[in-house]
């Protein structure tokens, strides 16, 4: 059985998931694939970028899954993971994200392993890496 699209899909939680969805689409270029919400609570959302996808929802400290997730502001702004997204033009993507209010952590730069990339934080402090390096097409050494 062939699997279409992403086979690894990061899952994120946001305090204001509805605002995060709008911001991630405006700042990073994600597109809404599906959003299941009741009022201000987003139970599950899927945002796509090319053939990739993230899933997200509202912070939920009451569910079995939610009790295992912490937000960056609960651990001193640190992260235990970060999403990496392949983009066609890192500089254009950087300009869009910065204009939307992304906090830039690492300015765009050419990478020793190939490609060009930058790192930023989103509206709730999650770390994101955007770059042109594509491990699927890069030649291995």
Name the assembly state.
single chain
State the strand order across the main sheet.
1-4-3-2
**What is the name of the CATH topology of the largest domain?**
Signal recognition particle alu RNA binding heterodimer, srp9/1
Under the CATH scheme, the architecture of the largest domain is 2-Layer Sandwich
The CATH class assignment of the largest domain is Alpha Beta
Unreliable segments of 5+ consecutive residues: none
Largest beta-sheet details: 4 strands, mixed
- Shape descriptor reads globular
Radius of gyration, rounded?
16 Å
Strand tally is 8
Number of helical stretches of at least 4 residues: 2
Task: Summarize the structure in words.
- By secondary structure, this protein is α/β, with parallel strands linked by helices.
- The chain has two domains: 1-68, Signal recognition particle alu RNA binding heterodimer, srp9/1 (2-Layer Sandwich); 79-141, Signal recognition particle alu RNA binding heterodimer, srp9/1.
- The chain is built from two helices and eight strands, in the order βαββββαβββ.
- It has helices spanning 17-28, 90-99, and strands spanning 11-14, 31-38, 41-49, 52-58, 83-86, 103-110, 116-121, 127-131.
- The strands form two sheets. Strands 1-4-3-2 form a four-stranded mixed sheet. A four-stranded mixed sheet has the order 5-8-7-6, with helices on one face.
- Strand 7 (116-121) and strand 8 (127-131) form a beta hairpin.
- It is globular, with a radius of gyration of 16 Å.
- The two termini are 31 Å apart.
- The model has no long low-confidence stretch (mean pLDDT 94).
